[in-house]
Amino acid sequence: IRQILVTVDACLAGDLSLKRFANELFLNTSYLSTLFKKEVGMTLTDYVNKNRIEYAKKLLKSTTLPIQDVAIQSGISDIHYFTRLFRREMGMSPRAWRNRSE
């Protein structure tokens, strides 16, 4: 689990799927999913998305990159999915969050 956490923190734009980690660690996906949730307290997908949104918040605050580029650098290539995810986590759109924090 520690190895997964380090990988997620180091490379948010890469393939961070449960299937990838299960293959690398020679584990069943269901077992790894259960183990991850038990150890971390949330699913791998939720953990990855939370970290991606945190990174996006840093980029929104510290750069003038377009929202599309922030999404891509955060590891989410679909701007609509990124906006939906950001809104669910933060309660507002990325643009509104950027404007509020300026």
- SSE order: HHHHHHH
Q: What fraction of residues sit in β-strands?
A: under 5%
Rg of Cα set: 15 Å
| Uncertain regions spanning at least 5 consecutive residues | none
Distance between the termini: 37 Å
Q: Quickly give the structural class.
A: mainly alpha
What is the β-strand count?
0
The share of residues in helices is over 70%
In this structure, how is the largest beta sheet organized? none
Instruction: Write down the overall geometry.
Output: elongated
Mean pLDDT comes to 94
Number of helices: 7
Tell me what you see in this structure:
Helices cover about 75% and strands about 0% of the residues. It contains seven helices and no strands. Helix 4 crosses helix 7. The longest helix is centred in the middle third of the chain and has 19 residues. The protein is elongated and about 45 Å long.
Write the topology of this structure.
Elements: H1 2-10, H2 18-24, H3 29-40, H4 44-62, H5 67-73, H6 79-90, H7 94-101
Helix pairs in contact: 4-7
